[in-house]
Design brief:
Helix content is about 40%, strand content about 5%. With about 160 residues, the protein is mainly alpha-helical. It has two domains: about 60 residues, no CATH class; about 70 residues, no CATH class. It starts with 16 loop residues before the first helix and ends in a 20-residue tail after the last helix.
């Protein structure tokens, strides 16, 4: 069976595609239909729309081959909690854009949000900065207090060359 996915299981870029497909095929794809994808695709600019549509439509076939069980319908319900929670958002995150962090925080009673300018996905993991480290450590040390996030205002915009 793994031979079918030879190109999909390349770990050289640091992404575990097996893990990706296991989650994607259990938690996302089974809740989509071609019609919902077509509606969502309308949010993309026309030059991007065709490529995005092809990629998403291909997920249906990939997931049939991957063969994981669909997650329970409750997986799509928002988490409701009063546990202190910190949400770190990258301004340019294409995977989980800031709007999704904002949405998640709505049902997390004791949440704090920090948006990092000029950063993408994985603010603390992939875009590690001393600023993110300071905020994270302050939150771990005192989860009931909102950490000082003023360092985010001093982070530079990306340099496009």
């Amino acid at each position: 069976m793994l031979a079918e996915f030879d190109g999909d299981l390349n770990f050289s870029d640091g992404v575990s595609w097996g893990t990706f497909y296991s989650f994607e095929c259990a938690e996302d794809v089974p809740f989509m239909t071609p019609a919902t994808l077509a509606t969502a695709d309308q949010s993309f600019p026309a030059p991007i729309r065709a490529d995005e549509d092809v990629g998403q439509q291909a997920a249906f076939g990939e997931c049939q081959r991957w063969g994981v069980t669909k997650a329970a319908d409750g997986e799509k319900a928002p988490v409701v909690s009063d546990i202190p929670t910190m949400v770190l958002e990258g301004e340019y995150d294409p995977v989980t854009p800031p709007s999704q962090g904002d949405l998640a925080a709505q049902t997390l009673k004791n949440s704090v949000i920090f948006r990092f300018p000029a950063m993408g996905h994985g603010v603390f993991i992939y875009n590690f900065t001393p600023c993110a480290s300071q905020i994270f450590q302050a939150f771990v040390d005192h989860p009931q207090q909102k950490p000082d996030g003023s360092c985010t205002t001093r982070l530079p915009e990306p340099a496009f060359t």
